Automatic annotation (TrEMBL):
Residues 197-206 have a biased composition (Basic and acidic residues). The keyword Magnesium applies. SUPFAM superfamilies: NagB/RpiA/CoA transferase-like (SSF100950). It catalyses: (6S)-5-formyl-5,6,7,8-tetrahydrofolate + ATP = (6R)-5,10-methenyltetrahydrofolate + ADP + phosphate. GO terms for biological process: folic acid-containing compound biosynthetic process; tetrahydrofolate interconversion. Its EC number is 6.3.3.2. This is 5-formyltetrahydrofolate cyclo-ligase. Coiled coil: none annotated. It comes from the Bacteria. It comes from Hydrogenibacillus schlegelii (Bacillus schlegelii).
């Protein structure tokens, strides 16, 4: 078992290096981020949510900061995470438009630890990552923070904003890896069949209103450089680089 775990860790590490090596034209990432955020704002789960947990984007992640503004303008509660120690789950804090964010662990902007938000009160959580697969498996950065955090957000629908090149057929996973419920791509939301969120009665109608689309059939390889239109022209495996 130890040898198997070691091989899995090495495979994940290689994938992380490959995805971190992507070079995306800023104008492409900005345009696709706007489209993804527009789909998020139109989704029934967002419209019904009172408390939305988002993230401060790192380079290479979908820029969801315009969604922050929409949350504030709609009178909803915006929560952002803080790292409060290795091996511990993230803690979410309410963020107002006047809040000053500061670089925290790993250089990620974090909110001041002033008004904690109960994880059980979060209705919608945006989950960042390096890559996702068609089963909702997420490739994170190796710290395990979201795997420890998401099980505690009991009512939250887990949604992953992602660029097309971040989607692959299959990622390595173990039993404790927490999966997302819906992928949000530039062309719209993609519910994950059989996900925990999809099976919750309160979420079924929300997901059904998106047409019940299956995950897109096109493979997305890890690019050394993304072409100007943001989409790959050929297919390949995630660890082919």
């Amino acid at each position: 078992m130890a040898g198997s775990d070691g091989a899995l860790d090495r495979e994940k590490a290689a994938l992380r290096r490959a995805f971190r090596g992507q070079k995306v034209p800023p104008e492409v990432a900005a345009d696709l981020s706007r489209r993804i955020v527009a789909h998020l704002l139109a989704h029934p789960a967002y419209r019904a949510a009172a408390v939305v947990a988002a993230y401060a984007p790192l380079p290479g992640e979908v820029d969801v900061r315009p969604l922050w503004t929409a949350v504030w303008e709609a009178g909803k509660t915006l929560a952002l995470p803080r790292v409060e120690g290795r091996g511990r789950p993230l803690r979410f804090y309410r963020v107002e438009p006047t809040a000053v964010l500061s670089p925290g662990a790993f250089g990620i902007l974090e909110p001041p630890p002033e008004e904690a938000v109960d994880g059980a009160a979060i209705d919608l959580v945006l989950v960042p990552g390096l890559a996702f697969d068609r089963r909702g498996v997420r490739l994170g950065y190796g710290g395990g923070f979201y795997d420890r955090t998401l099980p505690g957000l009991r009512r939250a629908l887990r949604v992953a904003p992602a660029f097309p090149w971040q989607i692959v057929d299959r990622l390595p996973a173990v039993a404790h890896d927490v999966r997302v419920d819906v992928l949000f791509l530039p062309d719209g939301p993609v519910p994950i069949a059989g996900s925990e969120g999809a099976e919750k009665p309160a979420r079924q109608e929300e997901l059904a209103q998106n047409g019940g689309k299956a995950v897109a059939e096109e493979k997305a390889e890890v690019p050394a450089e993304v072409p100007a239109d943001g989409f790959k022209k050929s297919s390949g495996e995630a660890n082919g680089a």
